[in-house]
UniProtKB/TrEMBL annotation:
Keywords: Cytoplasm, Disulfide bond, Redox-active center. It is found in: Cytoplasm. It comes from Salinirubrum litoreum. InterPro entries: Thioredoxin, Thioredoxin-like_sf, Thioredoxin_CS, Thioredoxin_domain, Thioredoxin_H-type-like. The record marks D33 as: Deprotonates C-terminal active site Cys. SUPFAM superfamilies: Thioredoxin-like. GO terms for cellular component: cytoplasm. PANTHER family: THIOREDOXIN, THIOREDOXIN-1-RELATED. The lineage of its organism: Archaea, Methanobacteriati, Methanobacteriota, Stenosarchaea group, Halobacteria. This is Thioredoxin family protein.
Amino acid sequence: MSETEAVSSEPIHVESEDHLQRLVVDNDVVLVDFYADWCGPCKMLEPTVAEIAAETDAVVAKVDIDALQTLAKNEGVRSVPTLQFYAGGQKGERFVGVQSKDDLVAHIESLA
């Protein structure tokens, strides 16, 4: 893991399943945003996800389900946006659809 990923204030675009696993294992709290460029609700959620990356200690990872179809399938993603939380390397809560920033931040704080 690079130093910038450890303290990233911007969402990290996941390049592979291994890359996602490294992020999950190497960080305390990870929010994974499974999205697609063609998805209207994903575009609505994008500024919220960017703010969470900048304002919280959570690492925010973005997975393009079209570019990484196998990863999305293996993770059981059936619709976008899907937000998957990880804490201490373990899969946690999953939210599907557009969520409020307050709800997402509150959940991150409950995991920290």
